[in-house]
């Protein structure tokens, strides 16, 4: 079972990367969604140096972002909200104080939604209801639950993908391939045409393995084709996106169907997002987390990707050690059952 560990704000330092490698992660994932290309490359270089110092064979994965509407930046990076609280969201890249307004990185925000619309933030950690369209750039929303808004998180409003803009951004990343030397590239499925263009732009593609990310209904509709496409070495089930882009109550069945299809075509499949999040605080994981990982293994997935657990959690190595214990227990059970 492949273990992929996301590297983010709380784990990019040499000390944490070292712990993650020594805990037994198989791959480090770097997401280009939340920082500039230069900042992300700097984090990759820190990991490369640690990897070389430890003489580790751990692999590096660069994760290409989809085009999404995101919250902007704010000084404290997080902002606590309460259920029923009303807040102003405004088109902007930055806000000095979220009590004044929460920035949203899109123009004419007021024209992209409507009163009473429900919108998920991030992986659905917070949901909001639009109460008023103040003007073309500004809306008033009501919080539907307690939680924390995080800078740069996705605001799930339907948007038309600017394919050429996205492709140009990917090209900027690809210009640094010799510098960052990844082993894997994760690519979101957008549509057949643009994905073919993305693949064509990867320099010396045979040097890298490519992972196709399933994030929405469009990806699900093309699953059989993607499983047979030799451009893609693995399938990644992005449960964070699927859980807000599709009815969440169907997610378990969707995951099982993807694993089943991938196994039919002998295409390795990775399950991502909210696998052992309880280990960010708990010593013993929640029973639902234990059972989730157990069923992922029993269903035949080939790997798991930790996101918040190792990117934002303060003890990423512990999450990996817990995963290894569960994996070993399930594999032992499978051997006995055979």
From TrEMBL:
Keyword Magnesium set for record: yes
Coiled coil: none
Family of the protein in this entry: Belongs to the pyruvate kinase family.
Occurrences of domain Pyruvate kinase barrel (ranges): 3-318
Origin superkingdom: Bacteria
Record key words, sorted: ATP-binding, Glycolysis, Kinase, Magnesium, Metal-binding, Nucleotide-binding, Pyruvate, Transferase
Short name of any one Pfam family annotated for the protein: PK
Annotated pathway: Carbohydrate degradation; glycolysis; pyruvate from D-glyceraldehyde 3-phosphate: step 5/5
GO molecular function: ATP binding; kinase activity; magnesium ion binding; potassium ion binding; pyruvate kinase activity
PANTHER family associated with the record: PYRUVATE KINASE
Enzyme Commission number, as recorded: 2.7.1.40
Protein name according to UniProt: Pyruvate kinase
Catalysed reactions, semicolon-separated: pyruvate + ATP = phosphoenolpyruvate + ADP + H(+)
């Amino acid at each position: 079972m492949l273990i992929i560990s996301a590297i983010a704000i709380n784990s990019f330092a040499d000390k944490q990367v070292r712990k993650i490698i020594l805990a037994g992660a198989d791959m480090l994932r770097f997401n280009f969604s939340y920082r500039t290309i230069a900042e992300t490359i700097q984090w990759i270089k820190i990991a490369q140096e640690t990897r070389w110092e430890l003489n580790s064979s751990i692999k590096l994965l660069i994760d290409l972002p989809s085009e999404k509407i995101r919250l902007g930046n704010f000084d404290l990076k997080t902002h606590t909200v309460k259920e029923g609280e009303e807040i102003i969201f405004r088109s902007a890249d930055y806000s000095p104080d979220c009590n004044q307004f929460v920035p949203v990185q899109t123009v004419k925000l007021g024209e992209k939604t409507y009163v009473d619309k429900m919108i998920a933030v991030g992986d659905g950690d917070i949901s909001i209801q639009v109460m008023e369209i103040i003007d073309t750039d500004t809306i008033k929303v009501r919080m539907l639950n307690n939680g924390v808004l995080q800078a740069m998180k996705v605001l799930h409003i339907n948007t038309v993908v600017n394919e050429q803009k996205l492709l140009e951004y990917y090209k900027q990343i690809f210009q640094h391939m010799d510098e960052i030397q990844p082993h894997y590239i994760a690519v979101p499925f957008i549509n057949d045409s643009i994905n073919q263009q993305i693949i064509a732009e990867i320099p010396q593609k045979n040097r890298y393995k490519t992972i196709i990310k399933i994030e929405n209904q469009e990806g699900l509709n093309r699953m059989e084709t993607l499983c047979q496409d030799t451009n893609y070495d693995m399938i990644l089930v992005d449960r964070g996106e699927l859980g807000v882009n599709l009815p969440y109550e169907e997610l378990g069945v969707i995951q099982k169907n993807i694993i089943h299809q991938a196994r039919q075509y002998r295409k390795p499949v990775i399950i991502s997002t909210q696998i052992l999040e309880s280990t960010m605080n708990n010593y013993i994981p929640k029973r639902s987390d234990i059972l989730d990982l157990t069923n992922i293994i029993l269903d035949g997935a080939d790997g798991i990707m930790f996101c918040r657990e190792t990117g934002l959690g303060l003890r990423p190595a512990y999450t990996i050690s817990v995963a290894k214990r569960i994996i070993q227990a399930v594999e032992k059970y499978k051997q006995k059952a055979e």
